From TrEMBL:
Native organism: Desulfuribacillus alkaliarsenatis
Record keywords, A-Z: Hydrolase, Lipid degradation, Lipid metabolism
Residues at the catalytic site: S43 (nucleophile), D219 (proton acceptor)
Domain PNPLA: start-end pairs: 8-232
A Pfam family matched in the record: Patatin
SUPFAM superfamilies hit by this protein: FabD/lysophospholipase-like
Official protein name in the record: Patatin
GO molecular function, one term: hydrolase activity
Motif GXSXG per record, residues: 41-45
Amino acid sequence: MRYPVTNMVFEGGGVLGIAYLGVLDYLYSQGVFQNVKRVAGTSAGAITACVSSFNLPFNEIKAIADSLDYRKVPQSKAHSDLKHIPAPIKHEIDKLFGDVNSIYRIVKNYGWYSTDYFYHWLQEQIANQFDSKKKKPPYTFRDFQNTDIHRSNRTFKDLYIIGTNISYKTSKVFSYETTPDMEVAEAVRISMSIPLFFEAVKTTDPAITAETKVNVFCDGGVMDNYPINTFDYPRFNETKHYGFNVNTLGARFKSKVKYSEITNILSYIKNLNLALTQIQQDIYNHSPYDQARSIVIDTKDVSSTDFNISPHDATYNFLYSQGYLAAKGFYRQ
């Protein structure tokens, strides 16, 4: 028996998140996603949750997703502290030590790559959903609830973004209920900031931390890569079965445990992060109720951090197709 879906959850997975477009394509075609009221996600899943929360037709969601230049996402631009170094001197330093910008960034901001390109891209996509004459950016979770300032007065789906507060060693849910005055683009930026791969987010913003001490945030996947239990609390449980919300549907990726050769700092960081999430996979494997409400996508050997991809190339088409087929298979089993 399939219950009506009112909550949708997306797992983290880097560029594998392209497969979620295929999932959404199928769910829209079957009239499923149109009835979803709430969306949650971690990392790549947070991006999907954010864009799908706009409550747009599928073709518009896909157009937004396809406007992201994946090759620019891991950005190794000059750190602001190093911009005063003359180019010839910086060139000689690079020859001695490698990419000095990235080395400095990982020491200063705890991540090899900048997330500025992605952050500004998402800010633009969000701004396009609002009437700037009624309110200027940035736009917060509170703004996502205010239909009066939305273009066409369109109602958004309730949005829940998962991050990790390294300072407190805890998972953090960003939402209208918990952080109403937090910028949504900043929440998603935090959620997709893979530890050491992307720079961490350091903030004293009271809208996020409710205190003046510096808090350091990173990828929500460190502690909750698949937040399938987000809506299992009583206030969301429209149909409760053994403590699980049967009106929740999740989308995630098939786990692959295999040998990986580690040859440099980036491959070390990638495999370290995969190891961190393995315990979460073990928990999922022992939860038949979570398995029963999950679309599982087999992405074969595509790497979650292979950003050398563009819309409609072979890898993009493969991931999209795998997502569509996984959703179709879920509803036909």
